[in-house]
């Protein structure tokens, strides 16, 4: 028999279910990759002495590039699987980030069939946002945490991590960075100073691009500060102090470096041939990554249009 008390219990149950649904559906707070424990690059330890890289992007002859598709066009495939639990909105952000890279470069993301080397997107609580740089053997994990507390699923973060997987490093590590920024080491937490190591010229390949404050690969001004509010990356031109780390999409120079690295024949919708990449490839033999730089990117212990404008912000 129905009673008022049963009515109240039913109302309470519906209220509880609604609250639970709202809580679970809530987007978590954005994870700032420039301040998360260990940074956002995770290079596997087992590559040992076989790691040969060109920075701030892989060389066009690097063995860590992804495989070319056997077609008449210059296209490269990144097989992927999504093993993390994401809702439809989060999946849409991930797929749109992939499509944007595909539309502007010769990279193609395809669902994995039986490829031995592949990208695996995972979602684990307390793991943050990270991936490796370039293709490694076997499973290449990209961690994109997403829950009602914290999330990596923002367009710029997903593009940033995908571009690491393709082969780009951080903009502030370029060998010419001292012309554009000053690293305030006194404000950096000591354990994270290696996150700001500058890549020597002999180990660099910027493919002729200018330093770009608006690169989606640039850290923000307070990255890894030892205390809240301290600036760790000071732009020499103060106009750009509040620009770095704020990009919400890839810059043309980010796409340009990928096109040059993979020797695409089209880039950002136009025919493409990068003369600078050929010059740099011939003048910079593939160089073994120094021990210092290897340490700077090894964070496995911390987490289970042609573009030559003189305007540095383009």
From TrEMBL:
Record keywords: Disulfide bond, Hydrolase, Metal-binding, Metalloprotease, Protease, Signal, Zinc
Chain ranges of the Peptidase M12A domain: 56-265
Sequence ranges of Polar residues compositional bias: 298-314
One family name in Pfam for this protein: Astacin
Superkingdom of this protein's organism: Eukaryota
Keyword Plastid: no
Stretches the record annotates as Disordered: 295-314
Active site: 161
Biological process, per Gene Ontology: proteolysis
Name of the protein described by the UniProt record: Metalloendopeptidase
Organism: Toxocara canis
């Amino acid at each position: 028999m129905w009673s008022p008390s049963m009515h109240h219990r039913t109302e309470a149950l519906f209220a509880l279910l609604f609250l639970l649904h709202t809580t679970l559906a809530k987007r978590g707070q954005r994870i700032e990759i420039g301040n998360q424990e260990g940074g956002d690059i995770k290079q596997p330890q087992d590559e040992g002495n076989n790691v040969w890289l060109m920075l701030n992007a892989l060389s066009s002859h690097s063995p860590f590039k992804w495989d070319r598709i056997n077609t008449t066009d210059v296209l490269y495939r990144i097989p992927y699987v999504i093993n993390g639990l994401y809702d439809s909105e989060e999946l849409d952000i991930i797929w749109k980030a992939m499509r944007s890279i595909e539309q502007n470069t010769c990279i193609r993301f395809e669902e994995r069939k039986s490829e031995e080397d592949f990208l695996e997107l995972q979602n684990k609580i307390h793991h943050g946002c990270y991936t490796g740089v370039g293709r490694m053997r076997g499973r290449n994990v990209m961690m994109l945490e997403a829950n009602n507390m914290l999330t990596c699923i923002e367009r710029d973060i997903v593009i940033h991590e995908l571009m690491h997987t393709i082969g780009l490093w951080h903009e502030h590590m370029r060998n010419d960075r001292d012309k554009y920024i000053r690293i305030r080491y006194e404000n950096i937490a000591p354990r994270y100073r290696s996150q700001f190591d500058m890549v020597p010229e002999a180990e660099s390949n910027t493919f002729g691009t200018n330093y770009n404050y608006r690169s989606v690969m640039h850290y923000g001004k307070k990255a890894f500060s030892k205390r809240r509010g301290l600036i760790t990356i000071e732009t020499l031109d103060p106009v750009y102090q509040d620009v770095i780390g704020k990009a919400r999409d890839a810059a043309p120079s980010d796409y340009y470096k990928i096109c040059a690295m993979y020797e695409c024949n089209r880039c950002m919708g136009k025919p493409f041939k990068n003369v600078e990449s050929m010059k740099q490839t011939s003048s910079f033999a593939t160089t073994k990554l120094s021990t210092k730089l290897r340490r700077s990117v090894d964070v496995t212990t911390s987490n289970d249009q042609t573009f030559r404008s003189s305007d540095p912000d383009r």
